[in-house]
Amino acid sequence: MGVITWALCIILLDALLSSAQWAGLLLLKCSSCGGLAGVWAFGLVKWVFLHVLISALADRKHRALPHRFAALLCFIAPVFETGRVLTESPSEQYRGPSLDPIMLLLGAASSSLACLIWEKWLSRDGQMKKENLDTKRLLKRVLTYFKPDTVHLITAFGFLIMGVILFSGMRGGIFMVALARLNKRLKHLLFHNLLKQEVHFFEANNPG
């Protein structure tokens, strides 16, 4: 099977699996799909299924490209949903993946374009083969100099991850505090304005 045939088969299988997921969500009347973790879990299940299928049917020499394309196609939707959650307001609840077929076509087109650019210009078989190999050798050489400081690097990355988690929680907490203070301020203003009204205002309007 040629590369284009494999790509079309992978896109078709991904569309069938996604359609089955949408049908299940509609039947179960559950649009959230288990939240963001459920979206990533379904992408992982699709990738494992396609990876095993490609390994079983494709020749060993021609497995690398379909494997990369399948991984890109399966995980582009979870990455998109994660970016959408991060850009939304913390107070908004995640409503689940979009059930629009256009998003499925955009995912397939984006994955195909990204895979084409990678294989044509950025992969080992592209025009930048020598530059990529030199960069990898240089990176490996630099990493060998960091071996005595492995503990310090692990500690630094640990504090980096802890900082991201901590400041993400602080961001949500500060937003909630600001909203609570605004709500309290508006209630006080409403109460003071009601106290300043004349008696005929309460006769004309029901306070309850």
Automatic annotation (TrEMBL):
Entry-linked InterPro entries: ABC1_TM_dom, ABC1_TM_sf
Signal peptide span: 1-20
Transmembrane intervals: 36-57, 69-87, 150-180
Domain ABC transmembrane type-1, chain residue ranges per copy: 135-208
Domain of life: Eukaryota
PROSITE patterns: ABC_TM1F
Keyword presence, Transmembrane: yes
Keywords from the named record: Membrane, Signal, Transmembrane, Transmembrane helix
One of the Pfam families matching this protein, by short name: ABC_membrane
Protein name (record): ABC transmembrane type-1 domain-containing protein
Organism: Xenoophorus captivus
Higher taxonomy: Eukaryota, Metazoa, Chordata, Craniata, Vertebrata
